[in-house]
Write a structure and sequence with these properties.
This protein is flat. The protein is built from seven helices and no strands. By secondary structure, the chain is mainly alpha-helical. Helix 1 packs across helix 5.
Length: 177
């Protein structure tokens, strides 16, 4: 570009080509970095599953925050805590999933048992999909819990006056004319 600085058209083409190549390489780098991180998570996930098969699951979350002394049966069957059923079962990647699992374990509901069993049966045959889903979920960094975002969306109040929504149509009509 420096060599052709006096020739504006040639310098502009070189600059434009350089910008396009740079943006392509940045995009490619980001994609490769994401794939690398996902593969690392898949390796970690499979290492964890091998440990769990050997009954080494003591490093997993124990779910002590869900332990309730007043719950009718959770203390009797070691539902939460060290060496608990929750610790052995929990494969959730997000905080909301962990809360959902604890609710399912403590709800003592017989509603939809057949549907739940069929869902588990269906997912058990989809090992690759489950691993991909978990790896991608572990790559997600959430700063705000999803229930807070849902609350924001439900309580959203528009701040734009009603007549403003027609302006794009008016300007489009003027542009067409």
């Amino acid at each position: 570009m420096y060599y052709y600085f006096g020739e504006f058209r040639i310098a502009a083409v070189i600059a434009l080509a350089g910008i396009v190549i740079f943006l392509f390489l940045v995009s490619r780098h980001t994609d490769l970095k994401y794939e690398r991180d996902k593969i690392k998570e898949l390796v970690n996930l499979n290492d964890l599953e091998l440990k769990i098969l050997n009954r080494d699951f003591q490093g997993l979350p124990m779910g002590k925050e869900f332990d309730n002394d007043l719950h009718p049966y959770s203390q009797d069957i070691d539902l939460f805590g060290k060496g608990s059923f929750f610790q052995y079962l929990n494969r959730t990647a997000l905080r909301e999933g962990c809360h959902k699992l604890s609710n399912i374990l403590t709800e003592n509901s017989i509603i939809s048992i057949i549907e739940k069993q069929e869902a588990v049966k269906e997912l058990s045959a989809m090992t690759k999909w489950r691993q991909e889903f978990t790896a991608v979920a572990k790559l997600v960094n959430t700063e705000t819990p999803s229930n807070k975002v849902l609350s924001w969306l439900k309580n959203y109040k528009t701040f734009i006056p009603g007549y403003i929504q027609w302006l794009p149509y008016i300007f489009s009509g003027i542009s067409l004319l």
